[in-house]
Amino acid sequence: MKKTTTPARRKTARAKVIGTPIPRLEGPEKVSGRAIYATDVRVPGMLWCKVLRSPIAYGRIKNIDARRPLELPGVHAVATGEDIKGLLIGRKIYDMPILADGVVRFIGEKVAAVAAESEAIAEEALSLINVEYEELPALLDPLEAVKPSAPLLHPNVQSYRGLLHPIQAPSNVFVNMNWRKGVIEPGFREADLIVENVFTTQPVHQAYIEPHACVVQARAGGNADIWACSKVPFALREQVANAFGKALENFIVHPCYIGGCFGGKGDFMDVPVCYLLSLKSGRPVKRVMDYAEEFVAGNPRHAAVVRVKSGVKRDGRLIAHQMEYLFDSGAYGAFKPQGYLVGPKEAAGPYNIPNVFIEEKIVYTNKIPCGHMRAPGDPQGFFANESQMDLIARRLGMDPIAFRKKNLMRDGDISPIGHKIPHIKSHEILDAALKNSAYRRPKRQHTGRGIAVSQWLPLGGECHAFVSIDTQGDVVVSTAMLDQGAGTHTAMRLVAAEELKIPPDRIRVETLDTSAVGADTGIGASRGTRIFGNATRLAAAQARDQLLEAGSKKLRTPQEKLFLTGNGGVRAPSGESLSYGEIAQTSGSEVRGHGFYKDFEPGPAAALCVQIAEVEVDVETGQVRLTRFTSAHSTGTILNPLTHQGQIDGGVVMGLGYALMEGVMIEGGHVVTTNFGDNKIASIKDIPNLKTVIQEFPVGNGPFGGMSIGEPPVVPTAAAIANAVEDAVGVRIFDLPITAEKVLRALRVRRE
User: Fold this and answer.
1) Helix (H) or strand (E) holding 176
2) What are phi and psi of 373, to 5 degrees?
3) What gap in Å lies between CA 416 and CA 751, rounded to an integer?
């Protein structure tokens, strides 16, 4: 593992910046309209792209007649799979054709595309394309798709680039991974009680405000400029280059603001199609998905079937624990950056269990391809696991809190998959959550309280950052990090301000394109502040040392005796001082520090989240009302309490939507929830009284000891609510979302 160090900070007259609540400094750009999103990009001569999508879930393309659109005035290019036969693309696994190549595998798959002078002309051109299909029986049930007798949706899967492991025989299962600790079967034989349950979840759309959008301007020789709402510009560059057999240097990805992400803005989406059309037309091409397209052809969270089998002793000790995941990938696996979902391997929870086996399978079906959504794989896994913990406690006749305390890890314990976790503070956070939520207070009839616990180990990455100070004293932080809506640019300003001892609003952030800086891993997996923050801190510290070195010569004072003034200057004990701008003038050029951070190791310190939900259930209608919600966290140094709290609140609201109402409904392969009237997300009326409990430990691997907070709050929410519903009315819902219909049905079954 590459070690990175930061020079010690010097004395200053200014109070520290880190830990002070500060509004997002990029806010004025956004509310004034100065912030440029991909939907705002205009290039001279730009054409508009529209795509023709498959109306059937599975079938062969017998014939495409795309000649008539070219006769329509204003149409400059038409493309079909015949233009790029055999080309595949993906974030890790290259299994998706850019346009359907002889076969369509889901309703909504791109079959043809046109580039025209207006959106209206492009739409009219689509109506002139004639496609003849040979429809085949669709494979829609993942439990059927895993069977050896199921028809193969990808007969050539063994040849796909980027597979995580060899596939011995063609199968619809293209990912089959496992993690283990101890030996599972002897563990079950030691158990006094074995509890088995199956939990299911549905696909969920990220519901970002900005739909996918891009502009591509191809140039001579196949070079291209790209503007897209992608949080991983270097990965996007690599995916397009690999698909078309070009060098990385052929493509420049230009920065744009991102109008919400939640995991869904890391894919290539329509960039390859626009590149193809731009090559054919010789003009820049723009594409903006409408929201109906987002629902039928986006990249939602995976539906899952999770089988959990647990063995326990009579005293409540967990002895053996087995989790088997089956994720429905939809028609392709191309939207997963690691090829699999990282969350499931950690979803056995923060518990001491000597024997563990976790298996993750991902299977193809004829449905919308799934991708990443906030904490990919974790909400599904922890819904199952933390529901299972309550069910075990009930079978044992134990209090669910006492059962968890019996098994919770402590600092230095070994995780369920064999990693030593030096810091977790599970008992401390659990006690704080109980105290602050009034968990033990008396309840009214049909009121219930539920608890769920999860841990989070952030992923790592690499990146570059530059901090420059010009002759006017202006400070700029330069990185290729995109702002996806979480306030990352403000965080970088705070980090640089802390090192340079100047107000954050005196620092500007410059976002670099992919030609101006070395490659990085981009935003995602709650690692943005960790990797870019550490790189920025290193760059700012280097710039500070250059200032002190130059100031020492000018003031004829040893560096160790100089002070940072707190307002952009260096002062000697004599009282003489120089501003940063004056020092840069003395040097003859700007002062510039470079920070490079590289650490791909997860953790090792874990952030813990304990959530307690209180619900009221109407036994006549089954309606569940969430009345109170407590989210307790062990976390690292908090850089900005205001945005830190915003991440917690946003995560909780997203989690309660997942628990109670959200889901992309698919019938016969058709997505039937194609607008926000049908695809309900949580609104202000659904949000209960929220309470946050935080214990801060400066042990994280982020700058100044910070830890991740973007994804932990969304992980255990659904399980806490499901546990509260059973506590209220005695029925267990095993399938998300927990709708009134499901609760009422369960109540009726219990009464019979």
Assistant:
1) strand 173-181
2) -140, 150
3) 39
Q: Which two tokens stand for residue 145?
A: 């798709």
pLDDT at 603: 83
| Count of helix runs (H) and strand runs (E) in the chain | 16, 30
Task: Tell if the pTM clears 0.90, that is, is over it.
Answer: yes
Q: Which residues contact 3 (CB under 8 A, 6 or more apart)?
A: none
Per-residue pLDDT band for 249 (boundaries 50, 70, 90) equals very high
Q: Which of 272, 273, 380, 283 has the alpha carbon at shortest distance from 326?
A: 380
For the chain, state the CA radius of gyration: 27
From residue 332, alpha-carbon distances to 18, 299, 356 in Å are: 44, 10, 30
The residue behind tokens 């932080």 is 477
**3 state SS of 482:** coil
Cα dihedral value 554, 555, 561, 563, nearest 10? -90
Q: Which residues, including other chains, have CB under 8 Å from residue 618's CB and lie 6 or more apart?
A: 446, 625, 740
Tokens 């233009």 belong to which residue?
83
pLDDT in tens, 22-75: 998 888 999 999 999 999 999 999 999 999 999 999 999 999 999 999 999 999
Distance of alpha carbon 549 from alpha carbon 565, whole angstroms: 15
Nearest-angstrom CA–CA distance, 583 and 549: 10
Residue listed under structure tokens 């990965």: 235
Beta strand ranges found along 32-154 (DSSP E): 47-53, 59-65, 75-80, 88-89, 96-97, 103-104, 110-116, 130-135
Phi, then psi, of 163 in degrees rounded to 5: -60, 145
Q: Which candidate, 426, 276, 295, 411, places its Cα nearest to that of 349?
A: 426
How many CB atoms are closer than 10 A to CB 23? 12
Quote the tokens at residue 540.
């700012």
Secondary structure in 3-state letters for 586-619:
HHCCCEEEEEEEEECCCCCCCEEEEEEEEEEECC
Could you give the angle at which helices 641-660 and 378-396 cross, rounded to 10 degrees? 70
